[in-house]
Specification:
alpha+beta; 8 helices
Length: 359
């Protein structure tokens, strides 16, 4: 009898192992963490690098304590960069970034063994948490624009919205916008209170920048003068307007910089706010390794259940209050940089208590 039972169990095991790979089942498979290749490190002091690594390790542990990857390998890495004279001047704080890549488990259709699966080799679904830089704002650093900046200001698509103690920087379709399941970015900014690390360029400032640019264009090519005169005249007419109007934020059309046709209302399709770094935001007594603001960006290719589940779960694990409390501070001790985070075990429920401790 035992012999037949063993045969039945063995047959069941062989059948189960030989089943075709099921993508839906892979989506429910417990995922794994993996440290990626070490990111770049440029112009950062040895002492500062240790502190920055410890800050990002704290971010890593915060997420891992409240999140378990599912149906994917979670690849993570860090990068660090400091002073770069070509990118900006008057540097106050280094840039450093923690990045998570969601690599799905996928059935291997090329294998003769139809039960085989592999880890995706690339992904467009990522999470980035960056200290002291906003990449989506034409690279706003904790520094002034360089003197030879080709534009003289930065473009910001949406005005930040203050929500629950931090700024929502908006969402945007990126990549192929014609697909049914669009790739989108959702952006947040954690700052000192309601302060912002940038200020709005006034209409007067913007007009003077464009005037200077057009003057150079005309000097370099006199044959273009008759064409550009119409835009120069429009700039001069706008500069005659009253002070209140000229002090308003410059809201302009995206492709209308050298052909100024007028300012537009907030929310006009294809418009942007002109902004510039505001160094008054920063505590200049701090070392360059201290985080003075965080930018958080969720990038997801919508429509895939693995991407949807993991991004939603990571959003719940990223504690904005914890990040806010890290601003202006440097870690007292170094945390292991690439330690795989371990989700804590639930605390046993005490007799007589009605509520279980929330993890």
């Amino acid at each position: 009898m035992k012999y037949y039972l063993v045969l039945i169990l063995l047959s069941f095991y062989t059948y189960a192992a030989a089943q075709d790979c099921d993508q839906a089942m892979l989506a429910k498979k417990t995922g794994t963490w993996k440290a990626g290749l070490k990111g770049s490190t440029t112009n950062v002091s040895a002492a500062g690098l240790l502190k920055e690594k410890a800050t990002l390790a704290s971010v890593h542990q915060m997420i891992g304590a409240n999140y378990q990857p599912m149906g994917c390998q979670l690849l993570y890495s860090n990068s660090f960069s400091g002073y770069n004279a070509a990118a900006a001047k008057n540097w106050i704080a280094d840039t450093y970034q923690y990045t998570m890549y969601i690599l799905r488990f996928l059935c291997d259709q090329q294998s003769a063994d139809k039960s085989k699966y592999y880890v995706d080799i690339s992904t467009s679904t990522t999470v980035t948490i960056t200290a002291n830089t906003i990449w989506q704002l034409n690279n706003l650093f904790a520094a002034d624009l360089p003197d030879d900046d080709f534009r003289g200001y930065l473009k910001m698509k949406d005005k930040p919205q203050w929500k629950d103690g931090l700024y929502y920087m908006g969402e945007e379709v990126v990549g192929d916008g014609d697909r049914e399941n669009k790739m989108k970015e959702y952006r947040w900014l954690i700052t000192y209170g309601e302060q912002l690390p940038f200020s709005y360029v006034s209409r007067k400032e913007y007009l003077l920048i464009q005037k200077k640019r057009l003057e150079k264009t005309i000097r370099d090519d006199q044959s273009s003068k008759s064409f550009y005169d119409q835009y120069m005249n429009r700039i001069l007419d706008n500069l005659k307007k009253d002070e209140g109007e000229l002090n308003a934020p410059a809201i302009c059309m995206w492709n209308d910089e050298e052909k100024f046709t007028g300012f537009v209302k907030e929310g006009t399709k294809g418009s942007f706010f002109a902004v510039k770094p505001d160094l008054n935001y920063y505590d200049k007594k701090l070392s360059r390794s201290a985080p003075q603001f965080f930018s958080v960006v969720y990038r997801i290719s919508h429509g895939d259940p693995v991407f949807e589940y993991n991004i939603t779960s990571i959003q719940k694990a990223v504690n904005f209050s914890t990040l806010r409390n890290m601003l202006g501070k440097e870690p007292a001790k170094t945390i292991i940089e690439n330690a795989v985070p371990v989700k804590p075990k639930p605390v046993a429920k005490k007799a007589g208590t009605k509520k279980q401790q929330q993890l």
